[in-house]
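input
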Amino acid sequence: MDLDKVIRKVPDFPKPGILFYDVTSVFTNAEAFQYVVDTMVESYSAQKVDGIIAIESRGFLLGACFAYKKGLPLVLARKKGKLPGKTVSESYDLEYGSATLEIHKEDLLPGKRWLIIDDLIATGGTLKAVANMIESVGAEVAGIFSIIGLPFLRYHDKIGQYNPITLVDYEGE
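output
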């Protein structure tokens, strides 16, 4: 399937000069959504994965589907202040700002292999922050999955060691 034809491109969002790749159009296309979920599950069928960490918010949709299909626990990485109780947190830089993510400390089990799922990889900062939280509790990153990759923003410099899998790569701005 040619996902590029399904992905909506929005110029000058969230600010002038940015071309935003909107994956919500993948979710509204049943065939494309099924393709993404089936490909994601197939891509990790031979690897040991103990659980999924999905990144807010579009990553939640993908992560939930994967966790359900594989019978695995789903842990949510949320924006700062959205989770009650004790959390592990990590701040990071985005391509146009900064942010902090948190995960419930009790959900992030040491010794486990976690697959990180998000919708798009830009600079890799968000995914590296989650990987840092995973490793800080003595767990491992099993891999990283995303629908879209923007390799021209050099995300491999931050997260290449986790062998990210993307379904569509955009090479230019």
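quick obs: The CA atoms of residues 48 and 113 lie 7 Å apart.
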